[in-house]
Specification:
It contains 4 helices and 9 strands, in the order H-E-H-E-E-H-E-E-E-E-E-H-E. By secondary structure, the chain is of the alpha+beta class. The chain has a single domain, classed as Porin (Beta Barrel). An 8-stranded antiparallel β-barrel has the order 1-2-3-4-5-6-8-9. The longest helix is centred in the N-terminal third of the chain and has 17 residues. The radius of gyration is 19 Å and the shape is elongated. Keywords: Signal. This is DUF3575 domain-containing protein.
């Protein structure tokens, strides 16, 4: 509950900040009101990793609308497949556990949802954003047979840099770091639960790069 209260207050604060008026008599032209973007991992997974045991089969798409040159709201669609708990952190040895095959689920967890985002430009290309993504979970065995369903509310805070390039600055990249947190993820079946209970519901300092197009 404390995480939910934190998210609500964060969204409310961002919303209130976004409503501040520009100085009287001054209006800034909004260029490229719409943008779409995907994380770098999407084409990498589709081209190289989709059939692997460790593939997360991720698809993620963001569609955003600029309210002005500081405030951006958006819709996020994402689906991915987990083969081990999301809460295994860097200091838990997440990379080593992937390579060694330890702490793998006895199957897969598919999570799919549509959520919302708010992005605030802070200084030049520097930005902060928050995303809230409700997800339907589907637990399956290794052969893809469904075991049961669940629900997760996946939230993330981002700090990054927006760099546009090309003619008319249509294309952009956004290197960033995330803090991820989730709740209501408590319906895991046997073969999953022992690993979920072993780790927390926060993943700190996830690096990422998004590629996008302004229009």
């Amino acid at each position: 509950m404390k995480y939910l209260i934190f998210i609500v207050f964060t969204l409310a604060s961002f919303s209130a900040y976004a409503q501040e008026n520009s100085p009287e008599g001054k209006e800034t032209e909004v260029t490229h009101k719409w943008r779409v973007s995907i994380p770098y991992i999407v084409p990498d997974e589709i081209i190289y990793g989709y059939g692997k045991r460790t593939s997360i089969q991720m698809v993620e798409l963001h569609v955003k609308r600029k309210l002005d040159n500081k405030n951006i709201v958006g819709v996020k669609f994402a689906t991915w497949r987990l083969f081990q708990p999301m809460g295994i952190t860097w200091w838990d040895g997440v990379v080593d556990k992937i390579e060694s095959g330890s702490d793998y689920y006895d199957g897969y967890l598919r999570e799919t949802g549509i959520g919302v985002s708010y992005q605030r430009m802070l200084w030049k290309g520097l930005f902060a954003s928050v995303e809230v993504l409700p997800q339907i979970q589907t637990y399956t065995d290794l052969d893809g047979e469904k075991i049961k369903n669940g629900f997760k509310l996946y939230n993330s805070l981002h700090l990054g840099y927006h760099a546009a390039f090309g003619k008319k600055k249509r294309f952009f990249i956004e290197p960033q770091v995330h803090i991820n947190q989730w709740m209501f993820d408590n319906n895991s079946p046997e073969g999953f639960k022992e690993f979920d209970d072993k780790y927390g519901n926060v993943f700190l300092f996830e690096p990422n790069i998004y590629f996008g197009f302004n229009f």
